[in-house]
Every structure is written in C-alpha cells, then in structure tokens.
Amino acid sequence: MATQPVAARNDEAASTAASTRARPGPGAGARIGSVDAPLPPVQVTQQGELHLNPALQLEADQILFVAEVRSLCRRVSKNGYWARQELFLLLEDAANAGILAGDLAKGEVLLKRAQELYQRALLARNRIHYVNGTAAGVVALIVLAAIVVQVANSGFASALAPPAMLVALFAFAGIGSVTSVLIRLSSLDLKEETSKFLLMLSGASKPLVAIAFASIVYIVLKYKLVAIAIGNGSDADPAYWVAAFLCGFSERFGSDIIARLEPQATAGR
Known about the structure:
The protein is mostly helical. It has ten helices and two strands.
C-alpha cells in the first residue's frame, strides 16, 4: 500500500519535466513576438481613418508623408466619389510602401496617382453639381416666365412686350444657356471648387442671367437705342429670338450691346 503514492509522485515529476522541456523560454517568446512576427499593415478604414502601428518609429519625411496621406483620406471620406474604394486602396498601398517597406519614393508615386484620381473624381462630381444647378435655374426660369406672362395678361407689362414675345424670349434665353453649359461641360475647370452649394448656385444663375440680358437687349433692339440693323424690316421677331438665344449662349453678347449705351449715357450727362 505504501508504494502507490511513490509511483504517483514519480509520474507527476516525469510529466512536469516533459512539459518544461517542451515549453520555450521567455527569451525565445519575446524574440518571436517582437522580431520575427511582422508588424500589422497600415490600414485605411471605410470612414477614411488611417491607422498606423503605434510602435512604428517614423522619421521626419515619413511623418510629412503620413500627414499628406491622412489629409487626402479625410477629403475622400467627406464625399461619395465613384472611385472612393479605389482611392482608399491606393492610399493604403502608398502608406505600406512608404512606411512598412521603407521605400518612400514608391510611396510618393502611389500617393501622386491617388491625388490625380481624386482630382478627376472631384472634377466629375463638380460638373454634375453644376449641371444640376443649371437644371434648377431652368425650373426657376419657367416659374418666372409663368409669373411674367400672368402680369402681362393683366395689362401691367403689355406696353413692353406681348405675352407671346415674353414666352419666346424666356424660352430662347433658356435654350441658349443650356446649350452653352452642355457644349462647354467637358472643358469647365471646376476642380478647385469644394462647395456644392456654390457650384449649384453658379449653375442656376446662368439661365437667370440669360433672361435678364435677353430682356434688356430686346428693349434696346426694339426701340433702336443702339444703331443695330436686325431683321428684314418687315418682321423682326426672329431676330429678337436669335438675340435672346445668344444672350443665353454667351453673356458677352448681351454685355457688348449694353456697353454701347454707355457713351450715349455719358454724353447725355
């Protein structure tokens, strides 16, 4: 009966020795965790947050590089660009190349590519906002035309132009402004604009400015305030319509005609 506890103790001692031999020492565990295991990669979240390993020791040029990457991430995250995911991947790869791989030159190349893609995406978005603003301006033009026609039918503005002429002037001015925007849309340089409201306001103002010029130019031409020969002498209405279209197509046309009144106004003083 006395031999059983001794055997149990011997088995326990053998098991403890085997587990001690199999377990790595504290030095080996620290070496594997701090040297051999790779650092976690730089990550850009869906919200545009750039996460770096806090253990990374960055140099001055790397800190500046990270600041540029983080700034572009924030700008991309504020807008729903069509290339949003591609931009985040490029910025993540740029940070990995410049920080983890230590190749700052390749990181700068990827960052520049991301910046160019961002500029194209920003330009496309701004042009869409500008067109939307122009469409809103056309709607405002239609509403304003309906109000003016109602006023003209009441006899208040019938001395200036009949309602049919007012509708034609508004329509041709609006068509001219829309045509101008569509023709020049691919060449509009809007990449520096960051405000959606200002872009839409700028687009909406174009049809409204067009009808203002068209109305003044119509009065100037009808009452011959400036010596300009229009029409064939019998029917000048088509010339008024063309003038209204040109006022919408190019504000310079209307401003040039109005500018001819300035010498006369100065001489009258």
